[in-house]
């Protein structure tokens, strides 16, 4: 897990997952800057994809269960983010993966997390479903 993750949503299931997701991003960045092996980078990206898919699945289920507005648009953003991370994994199997690609995907995922995911939590707290 990424010890520096501090973008808590206040929903333990999601916070734990997002800490793992951003930890994998950081491990990829570290492996790139320290000239890690391609298989270490690929492993982190494959694990990142798996953890991100699980995280998004849990998030989308909570939104459906509690009838949060904007769930369809939120899901579309998840699909776009997953596409970008899957592209990183494919690029890691060639010489095409760059630090810029990883940075852009990280930034897009974090921006989504700090904006759209916060709106999701607002929906749940207004309905008194979670306390943050």
Give a verbal description of the structure.
This protein is mostly helical and 132 residues long. It is 76% helix and 0% strand. It has helices at residues 12-33, 38-65, 71-92, 99-126. Helix 2 packs antiparallel against helix 3.
Number of strands: 0
* Structural class designation: mainly alpha
Q: What is the overall silhouette?
A: elongated
Largest sheet entry: none
- What's the helix-strand series? HHHH
Nearest-integer average pLDDT: 86
Helical content (DSSP H or I, runs of 4+): over 70%
Rg measurement, Å: 15 Å
Q: What is the rounded distance between the termini? A: 22 Å
Uncertain segments are none
| Count of runs of 4 or more consecutive helical residues | 4
Strand content: under 5%
Task: Give the SSE map.
Layout: H1 12-33, H2 38-65, H3 71-92, H4 99-126
Helix pairs in contact: 1-2, 1-4, 2-3, 3-4
Give me some keywords for this one.
132 residues; 76% helix; mainly alpha
In short:
The protein is mostly helical.
């Amino acid at each position: 897990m990424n010890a520096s993750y501090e973008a808590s949503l206040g929903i333990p299931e999601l916070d734990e997952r997002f800490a793992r997701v951003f930890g994998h991003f950081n491990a990829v960045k570290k492996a790139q800057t320290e000239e890690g092996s391609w298989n270490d980078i690929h492993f982190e990206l494959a694990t990142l994809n798996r953890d991100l898919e699980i995280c998004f699945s849990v998030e989308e289920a909570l939104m459906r269960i509690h009838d949060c507005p904007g769930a369809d648009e939120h899901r579309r953003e998840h699909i776009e983010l997953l596409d970008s991370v899957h592209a990183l994994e494919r690029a890691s199997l060639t010489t095409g993966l760059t630090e810029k690609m990883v940075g852009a995907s990280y930034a897009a995922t974090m921006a989504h997390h700090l904006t759209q995911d916060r709106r999701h939590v607002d929906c749940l707290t207004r309905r008194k479903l979670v306390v943050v």
